[in-house]
From TrEMBL, chain A:
The lineage of its organism: Bacteria, Pseudomonadati, Pseudomonadota, Alphaproteobacteria, Acetobacterales. It comes from Komagataeibacter oboediens. CDD domains: PBP2_CysP. This is Sulfate transporter subunit. Residues 1-24 form the signal peptide. Keywords: Periplasm, Signal, Transport.
TrEMBL record, chain B:
The gene is cysT. This is Sulfate transport system permease protein CysT. Gene3D superfamilies: MetI-like. The chain crosses the membrane at residues 21-46, 80-99, 111-133, 145-169, 197-219, 258-279. It is found in: Cell membrane. InterPro entries: CysT_permease, MetI-like, MetI-like_sf, Sulph_transpt2. It is a multi-pass membrane protein. Pfam families: BPD_transp_1. Its main location: membrane. It comes from Komagataeibacter oboediens. Keywords: Membrane, Sulfate transport, Transmembrane, Transmembrane helix, Transport. One of its GO terms (cellular component) is plasma membrane. The complex is composed of two ATP-binding proteins (CysA), two transmembrane proteins (CysT and CysW) and a solute-binding protein (CysP). GO terms for molecular function: ABC-type sulfate transporter activity. Part of the ABC transporter complex (TC 3.A.1.6.1) involved in sulfate/thiosulfate import.
Automatic annotation (TrEMBL), chain C:
It comes from Komagataeibacter oboediens. PANTHER family: SULFATE TRANSPORT SYSTEM PERMEASE PROTEIN, SULFATE TRANSPORT SYSTEM PERMEASE PROTEIN CYSW. CDD domains: TM_PBP2 (cd06261). The chain crosses the membrane at residues 7-30, 50-73, 85-108, 128-145, 185-212, 232-256. Part of the ABC transporter complex CysAWTP (TC 3.A.1.6.1) involved in sulfate/thiosulfate import. Probably responsible for the translocation of the substrate across the membrane. It is a multi-pass membrane protein. The keyword Transmembrane applies. Keywords: Membrane, Sulfate transport, Transmembrane, Transmembrane helix, Transport. This is Sulfate ABC transporter permease subunit. Its main location: membrane. It is found in: Cell membrane.
Length: 341, 291, 267
């Protein structure tokens, strides 16, 4: 039978409601004013861990020991830009390519002339696209044509969500255009064949690296030079080799302060100082340590041994990001037509 | 949910009631249900038709011809089906151990069985991927035998089996415990051996429970995401599950595409549940009592 | 002999299928020693993930418990047209993929959703912020309290409640002093199920979160971030904490149920 007994001693409902009320949202939102959020792309995890630590130390020294807490989030560059559009409160964006910041500017989050506000087109570090292969290069991959040989599987992320993937794609496109008799049609044919060799399209560069490194998928990973060097030197020192193709693209991942958000958070000064710090000698040295090519020529020269020489072409030679994005990666663009349905 | 047996005094609808609380209770229930479940579900159902009936139908027709969507739905459906079916065997054995045997450690097993249900899916995911991965405790030895589990469809099935197991045990064990013994005794007196009793008497009485268990494990499995994505290779046309394709479409900013897949996934799982409930009703007719 | 073989088979099944995964989580967490594992919690992002998970779980359990009690009370004590439909709708989230459980909220509050633009003007984002995580978690764990409580209330019947009303008790008093004490264990069991699912929710939350360490990362999301960042020890240490929390929930539930069985037998 039913036992009539009360559970009034701080019953369950009371307890849950009281705790719920006491721990509401304000503490979570509060940090946005005292901290700084850097929304970044995938392979910069290790880089910004160091930058954030060193910048906040420097900031504390010059600002009367009031420390600033910096947080950095990572993901595919396009996906990250979209999460900022959807309301992620980024003070600073450090994305994989300029177009993803242009999108934010188009929606009024920052000035459309953002790229002229910092030196070097707002790009503190450059990189290139290289090949990461299994130790000893068993499939004998040295140049772009080798990628579409029979039995070669290529790992590259999804160009619709990843910045690195778009650089990979455009590096291949640019190479194909530069071949004797190369036209948009031959380039398209090359890329169609190339993507027929791609078994998995991860949404970010780090996911692709995981597929190659940890899941053992594929024979060659198209990767940011920094991501490839990280994998080859730090993650699996005896498992991989880096192959630098004779010609590749000069990747320029830019940075910007998100005007509308820093005004709302009152973080304009610290955000400005943060992006400026990336161009400082310390910032450049940290970048070099994480295999990003410093734009400061002196520091680049000092680290020459880390970065192999290769011929590069830049995005301007392909018509600039706005045009490239529209022709290749927009819905119904060239990428849609070559990635088999 | 078996609600029928105890509760209601029989009386006309809407009759004045000795108990207060119908109004506020129903009001609050409807309010919360409307705000927290119906509102977003209606948004899901309405979304494809946002630009008119025609474009909605077109979108569905397009999706029906998209090989990548079809194969992702296929992978989810097939993996959940296989996992739920295979789960019935260990599930039944463990349920038997709990309900009918006196093996040592029964109470510990009773507690551990719920663990897969309570473990966060992401934890299950990274754990299964490591365990069955090329260097894992199980994946390593199997790999030397030439068997690959992680990043294949087998891996997906194993992950779904893990999360589905408690549903089977928890559904079958109580039925097994409450099964009237007289039929078994009668069969035994009539000279049936243990195997015959098991196959001819006990198992048929368990069919409805087994079907329910299968249905619950399947419904959980077809939408499973966190426990699967780490161990699946996530290769389109091969090991890409439907929920992952939804996430990919969202990251591509293709909300429409994501919504279509989501809607189809919900429809498949509701349809399967309806079929299963029909099947169970059919089976319960055959046996006295049932669940 | 057969009995021995059967026991061995059960131990093997349980060992491989159920026990091995959590054991491996602990082994991975401690693979570089206790110190390396504990270092995980020195990271402020880890702490704020733990805090966010606790807050989200508490709020979710609060909302779904209040709702679940009212729904179970209404559905088990009254018959009315549409009652069966209501039960089906309440259980709907169980057959919806967690990813869809997040997606549906994007369709309401996202920038491309129904009220996205209005929210943007208002300046308080719901999606990619903690409120969105809360909504997604509530959706996914919606049915558990009702589901566990309803059969118990139906089983208990309404005689005691009617008697209390005759004696002049109000609705609130009936609920608090008669109904809930009579179904105490079912209620706690439902609450524990909700807790377990809420603190571990991944798919739904991952769709609406934004994955910002320290701001919108719950423990499961933080585990994913650590895992992708090759911080295996930290990822598995965080996972071990969640395993521990899940194990506590399961253990409490089992012991409560055992206590109940014992009282039922002696009564």
């Amino acid at each position: 039978m039913v036992k009539v007994r009360s559970i009034t001693r701080r019953g369950l409902l009371h307890a849950t409601m009281a705790t719920g009320g006491a721990m509401a949202f304000p503490p979570l939102r509060a940090w946005a004013a005292t901290g700084l959020l850097n929304v970044s792309y995938d392979p910069t995890r290790e880089l910004y861990q160091d930058i954030d630590r060193s910048f906040s130390r420097q900031w504390a020294q010059t600002h009367g020991n009031s420390p600033v807490q910096i947080r950095t989030s990572h993901g595919g560059s396009g996906a990250q830009a979209r999460s900022v559009l959807e309301g992620a409160p980024a003070d600073v964006v450090t994305l994989g390519l300029a177009y993803d910041i242009d999108i934010l500017a188009q929606h009024g989050l920052l000035a459309t002339d953002w790229q002229g506000r910092l030196p070097h087109n707002s790009t503190p570090f450059t990189s290139t696209i290289v090949f990461l292969v299994r130790k000893g290069n068993p499939k004998n991959i040295h140049d772009w044509p080798d990628l579409i040989r029979d039995g070669v599987q290529v790992i590259t992320p999804n160009p619709k969500t990843s910045g690195g993937a778009r650089w990979n794609y455009l590096a291949a496109w640019g190479w194909a255009l530069r071949q004797p008799g190369g036209t948009a049609d031959t380039a398209r044919a090359y890329l169609k064949t190339l993507f027929a060799h791609v078994p998995v399209l991860d949404t970010g560069a780090r996911g692709a690296t995981n597929s190659f490194v940890q899941r053992g998928l594929g024979d060659v990973l198209l990767a940011w030079e920094d991501e490839a060097l990280l994998a080859a030197r730090d993650i699996g020192p005896d498992q991989f080799d880096i192959v630098v193709p004779p010609i590749t693209i000069l990747a320029e991942p830019p940075v910007a302060v998100v005007d509308r958000n820093v005004q709302a958070h009152g973080t304009t000064d610290v955000a400005q100082a943060y992006v400026t710090y990336l161009f400082s000698d310390e910032g450049q040295k940290i970048g070099a340590r994480h295999y990003f090519r410093p734009v400061n020529p002196t520091i680049l020269d000092a680290n020459r041994d880390r970065f192999p020489d290769t011929a590069t072409f830049d995005i301007a030679s392909l018509g600039g990001w706005t045009r490239v994005q529209k022709d290749h990666f927009a819905d119904g663009g060239i990428f849609d037509s070559i990635y088999s349905r | 949910m078996t609600m029928r047996r105890a509760a209601f005094p029989i009386r006309a609808r809407w009759q004045r009631d000795a108990l207060p609380g119908f109004g506020p209770g129903l009001g609050l229930t409807l309010f919360w249900l409307a705000g927290l479940v119906m509102l977003p579900m209606v948004a899901l159902i309405a979304r494809p038709w946002g630009e008119g009936l025609h474009s909605g139908l077109q979108a569905f027709a397009h999706a029906a011809h998209d090989r990548r969507i079809l194969s992702a739905l296929g992978v989810s459906f097939r993996s959940a089906l296989i996992a739920a079916l295979v789960d019935l065997v260990p599930g039944l054995l463990i349920a038997w151990a709990l309900a009918r045997s006196d093996i040592p450690g029964r109470r510990l097993i009773d507690m551990l069985v719920d663990l897969p249900f309570a473990l966060p899916t992401a934890v299950v995911g990274i754990t299964m991927a490591t365990l069955y991965g090329p260097n894992g405790w199980i994946g390593g030895p199997l790999g030397r035998l030439g068997l690959r589990i992680a990043f294949t469809q087998t891996g997906i099935v194993l992950a779904i089996m893990f999360v589905g197991l408690p549903f089977v045990v928890r559904t079958v064990a109580p039925v097994l415990r409450n099964l009237p013994r007289d039929a078994e005794d009668a069969a035994r007196i009539l000279g049936a051996n243990r195997m015959q009793v098991l196959l001819r008497v006990i198992l048929p009485a368990l069919y409805p429970a087994l079907v329910t268990a299968f249905g619950m494990a399947f419904a959980r499995g077809i939408g499973e995401y966190g426990s699967v994505i780490f161990i699946a290779g996530n290769q389109p046309f091969h090991t890409e599950i439907a929920p992952l394709l939804i996430v990919i479409r969202l990251q591509e900013y293709d909300t429409q595409g994501a919504t279509l897949i989501g809607l189809v996934l919900v429809m498949i799982s509701l349809l399967s549940l309806a079929l299963i409930s029909l099947l169970r009703r059919h089976l319960s007719h055959g046996t006295q009592g049932g669940v | 002999m057969a009995r021995f073989a059967f026991a061995a088979l059960i131990y093997l099944l349980m060992g491989i299928m159920v026990v091995l995964p959590p054991v491996m989580v602990l082994a991975m967490a401690l693979s570089h020693g206790m110190g390396a594992a504990l270092a995980t919690f020195a990271d402020p992002d880890a702490l704020s993930a733990i805090r966010l998970t606790i807050i989200m779980t508490v709020l979710t359990v609060g909302v779904n418990t209040i709702f679940g009690v009212m729904a179970a009370w209404t559905l088990s004590h009254f018959r009315f047209p549409g009652r069966n439909l209501l039960i089906v709708l309440i259980e709907l989230p169980l057959s919806v993929s967690p990813v869809v459980g997040g997606l549906v909220w994007l369709l309401v509050f996202g920038t491309q959703g129904w009220w996205g633009t209005a929210l943007e003007r208002w300046g308080h984002p719901i999606m990619f912020a903690p409120p969105g995580i809360l909504l997604a978690t509530i959706f996914v764990t919606f049915p558990y309290v009702t589901r566990t409580l309803m059969p118990m209330l139906a089983h208990n019947g309404r005689t005691a409640e009617e008697a209390a009303v005759m004696l002049g008790a109000s609705l609130w008093q009936v609920l608090w002093h008669v109904t809930l004490p009579g179904a105490r264990l079912a209620l706690v069991s439902g609450v524990l199920l909700t807790t377990a699912r809420a603190m571990g929710e991944f798919g739904a939350v991952s769709v609406v979160s934004g994955h910002i360490p320290g701001l919108t990362e719950t423990m499961p999301l933080h585990i994913e971030t650590l895992y992708n960042g090759y911080q295996t020890v930290a990822a598995f240490t965080m996972a071990a904490l969640l395993v521990l929390m899940a194990a506590i929930v399961v253990a409490v539930r089992t012991f409560l149920e055992r206590g109940q069985n014992r009282t039922e037998k002696t009564a």
